[in-house]
Amino acid sequence: MGVVAKLNTLYLDAVMDDGYQMLDNDNYEDVTALFEQASQDMQPGTLLFDKDFSLHEAMAAFEIGEPRFDSGLALLDDSRPPFDPLAPLLPEEVCWIIDRTFSCEMAWHTGYTLSQTVFSFLYVHALSDIDPDTISQSRHRDSDRTRPIELVSVALRASVLGLLKCCDLAWRELIKGNVYDFEDWQSDKCDVPMSETYPVSRILGILDEACIWIRNSCRVRSTWRTALSRRLVLRKTLVELLSALLSKDYFRFRPLIDTARTMLQHLRASPPPPPLPSSPALRAFDPQFPRVLVSALPLHPVQLPEQSKVWDMLAGLLDSLEQLSILIEIPDLSTWDVVGTLRIWQPKPNQSLAFIRSAFQSAIYENGIVLNKYLQKHVADCFFMEALQISYDSFISSFRTRWVGPDSLPLSHIERTITELMVGRVKSHWYNPPRRRRYCMKSLFDWHELYALLTDVQKRLVPVSGVDVVARLRPVVLMRRFETIGEIILSGFQLSLYSANERPLAYWYLARVLEQHLACLDEIIEVLPSKQRIYSISRFEFQFRARYLTALQALSLALFAVTVKTMGSSLERLRLNFLRRYKWAFVHEYEDIDIPPVGHPNFLTLTTNCRAILQDKEFSPAEQVELAERLLTESDTPPGRMAGPWTLDRMEFVSKMAGVCRDLKGLPKSMDSLQTWDVGQLVWDPDVQPWFPIMRNPS
Is pLDDT of 64 > 80? Predict the structure, then answer.
């Protein structure tokens, strides 16, 4: 008998049994035994599906501890008083409701679903009920003088429409594909309209009309007139700001952000009192209401953030948009690269919302336009000028003059590859950290393929006695590749991926890659034209990077030395962990290219270095830390355009790295003293320092 047939038979038998009753109410019986008995005919690993029961429904039954996805049966609270959208409200209650709508909005931006956040605000579903054109005149005559119905039908309705339009505009940005549905944000609208049919101008007009009514109303005390007006002005400003973002009118950002900040400051300073337990304002939010909406699966109610945290998130959103408005005026991709890496290395609170990350990516590249104004050739222009101080046109001219190969010039392929890699690199700074790590891994092969192509091209060019611009390009490509490998290694610390016996390996590999990276920098600086070697922005930038990377290498060597004994596992176990952790270096695509990849890890070299460092009597971890601190303390951020307005941010990051060195001064002074030194003093906490440990207080 088949499993399904057996299950049906057992079910019918159970229904007739006294232990199970077919009930037409909400009293359910445990049927676990039925499934256990029916599944006896199934083999391990097999799955049983039905037309309306797929793997998706089966997995949805699991609790994973994440309220955005966990589902389960929870009956609606019948004891909750019914919601009346036309219940009269005091002005301070309307202010409180509007403030909590910002909480719903920000909670959606942090990754929860619309049904758990914005759609739990019941006025969203009652807009037709509170339309002033549909409210009877008797409601206006009978309303309490302190609770005029216009507070709901005019002021609150305008705020609700503005909220929905903000969500609609943000949804349109998020749906572009720069960030990922279910991974970065939740797109499901549950068939609830979000003011999509209202043009922005109409929403702004409704908000203006509400502000005029509040300003002229004699039924609202002056204190609350001001408070209500400020909240509606803030909502109106956000609608304008998000509309400008979607149309890429970045020049409109500054005055709008200033206005929003002023309103936000007032709202922080004068919060409304919380409603009384009997207030109808409390019934405006029902965390269980999303269960009646059309959605793929029922979700647990979530706790909306506290109001102070909501204002912090909104302030972070405004700060990010201000940063975008400044950055969009800078044509140099190197500055975007610096700002993006600082965002990853030194994340600031409330500036990593998916909406913001999508907005930055849209500004970087969209529909063939770079930085909202340039053609794709601009990427190649920046690549050559910022790294080598030569124009892309001069490279093309030299290339065409010297080419003697039998095939056509691979210029278009080189330009396309450079463009894709550089645009992808800069955009990846605004990915979520795990996806950025995966992108970096995939891009390594493309960098190697470009390096191999340039090596092959070099053989088909007429030699020159002067500067060989093609030869100068190869170390730049290698530098970018080493840079990417280093970021992959460091991201493993930042994401807490490494186990205790993997950390020494990671620090060793990082030190090896940095050594090769520094060699490339030296080669690039050496071939800069003589004037550029003295005065150029590139020279100052590369010198700064050389000092910083040397300090990073010294720290890595010191931590490799003091943690090498924690590797502990058998050699075979270590080898398997090595292959698993660095599997990106062993993909079969590399076999199709004659030139072997540069900078890949080697397990034999690792084991040799492990033995060598333990036997090196002259090596001092403490001295390496002192060297790193000295390099970081003496290194000033280079002047010029590379860091742009974010020079102070970069210097702050360097200062924090110097602080890490000071904290690690307690490392052993020699490898002999390492025998009695307690490695347990080192604590890795990415929330404190993303890459390196802190010293635990012995007390």
Answer: no
User: What CA–CA distance (Å, rounded) separates 475 from 521?
Assistant: 8
Question: What is the DSSP-derived secondary structure letter of residue 610?
Answer: H
Strands 682-683 and 694-695, sheet pairing: antiparallel
Other Cβ atoms within 10 Å of 44 Cβ, number:
4
In terms of Cα–Cα distance, which of 144, 103, 134 is closest to 120?
A: 103
Average pLDDT over residues 103-108: 97
Name the H helices within 530-646: 530-535, 537-563, 571-581, 603-615, 621-634
Rounded-to-integer distance, Cα 622 and Cα 609, Å: 19
Q: Count CB atoms within 10 A of the CB of residue 641.
A: 15
- The predicted pLDDT at position 439 comes to 97
DSSP string covering 241-282: HHHHHHTT-GGGHHHHHHHHHHHHHHHHHSPPPPPPTT-GGG
For 610-664, write each residue's pLDDT tens digit: 889 988 889 999 999 999 999 999 866 555 457 888 988 999 999 999 999 999 9
H, E, C per residue of 164-204: HHHHHHHHHHHCCCCCCECCCECCCCCCCCCCCCCCHHHHH
Give the C-alpha separation, 194 to 242, whole Å. Answer: 15
Distance (Å, rounded) from C-alpha 103 to C-alpha 306?
Answer: 7
Handedness of CA 146, 148, 149, 154 (dihedral sign): negative
Q: What is the distance between the alpha carbons of residues 353 and 175, in angstroms, rounded to a whole number?
A: 14
Going 653 to 659 to 660 to 661, the CA torsion angle's sign is positive
Do residues 569 and 505 lie in contact, with contact meaning Cβ atoms separated by under 8 Å?
no
Longest dimension (CA), the chain: 99
Q: What's the rounded mean pLDDT across residues 570-579?
A: 88
Residue bearing tokens 């333990």: 614
What is the rounded CA–CA span in Å between residue 34 and residue 31? Answer: 5
- Cβ neighbour number for residue 393 with a 10 Å cutoff: 12
b/e code 592-612 from CB counts within 10 Å (16+ = b)? ebeeebebbbeeeebeebbee
- What pLDDT sits at residue 23? 43
pLDDT tier at 159 (50, 70, 90 boundaries)?
very high
Q: Tell me the backbone φ, ψ of residue 694, rounded to 5 degrees.
A: -110, 155
pTM: 0.87
Q: Which pair of structure tokens corresponds to residue 27?
A: 């009293």
Identify the DSSP state of 685. Answer: -
